Amino acid sequence: MSVLVTGGAGYIGSHTVLALVEAGIRTVVIDNLSTGFSTALPEGVPLFIGDAADENLVEGVIAAHDVSAIIHFAGSVVVPESMRDPLAYYRNNTMTTRNLLNAAVKCNVKNFIFSSTAAVYGNPDQIPVPEIAPTRPLSPYGSSKLMTEIMLHDVATAYGLNYVVLRYFNVAGADPQARIGLQTVGATHLLKIAVEAATGQRAKMEVFGTDYPTPDGSCIRDFIHVTDLAQAHLAALAYLDQGGDSVTLNCGYGRGYSVLETIEAVRRVCGRQFAVQMSPRRNGDIMTMIADTARIGRTLDWTPRYAELETIAAHALAWEEKLLQAREAA
Ligand code: UFG
């Protein structure tokens, strides 16, 4: 029996593959390497370079590797890009999952874990946000993920599939041993930008909005360490293996740090100052996003280990320094 990971060469996918392999779980990856890196995979993990929407490929891999569960990461994740090109997002996220599910149903794969996002909530009425909060995505990215959640629910009901939907909050950090991390070119995430500034790759960074009605005026996010998130996928897999019912779970820690606090944490761990410019609000930003974690807490056997902001910042920084050294040596 093995687990098929689509998008396993990407940021969150590769950390999950590493965790699976370290747990002794046989793992096989499909990735089209559009944003992923084959070098992010541990040695010996079979990689099929292709699209998760390619039903022939998926069915072949399921049969050849005796796949009993699918963890589906493959997709597009950039909110502003989804505004410019929504059809690409409905194709890469919604339609791809439709094909993948069709292959899973045909091949009788019963367990499915899906990467969703807190973006499905849009602007929440309530903080922390529970899973039962209204879903009103503000971007085609969020809509494409929400449509997939709905499709998954219908497929599960019709064909007896079981799923766990994980709605990720702000994923950050890197493998604690700096073996892998975020390599995406041009990533816009706060911690990535901050560690680029801390390593001298940017002359300065900006804080988008310091006039929000929050304690320090900047936005607040529930940053979750990518290695803890990877472990949540293993816990979800165990839950389904033990016959758990289909469920949708927020994946965060239930606490928030402001943008300014996050930048301070990076400054502390790197021991250097870097220029930070206070800028106007960024269009479409939500003021505060914090997960209500009650449901994941009572559903999965999952104990986060890296919730300290400084730990997340330190791991992101260590990885960025390694990436920089590798680039300079090349
Ligand atoms: N920010 C800055 N300066 C920067 C980058 C970001 O001040 O250079 C601020 C943003 O304005 C925002 C906060 O840092 O207030 C977090 O921004 P990110 O871009 O890191 O993350 P978002 O919260 O906008 O988006 C993330 C994921 C999305 C997901 C969303 C769900 O990137 O994929 O969370 O809430 F949909």
Automatic annotation (TrEMBL):
State whether keyword Iron applies.
no
Which pathway does it operate in? Carbohydrate metabolism; galactose metabolism
> Which cofactors does this gene product need?
NAD(+)
Membrane recorded as keyword: no
UniProt keyword terms in alphabetical order = Carbohydrate metabolism, Isomerase, NAD
| InterPro entries named among the record's database cross-references | Epimerase_deHydtase, NAD(P)-bd_dom_sf, UDP_G4E
Q: How does it assemble?
A: Homodimer.
Name the UniProt record assigns to this protein: UDP-glucose 4-epimerase
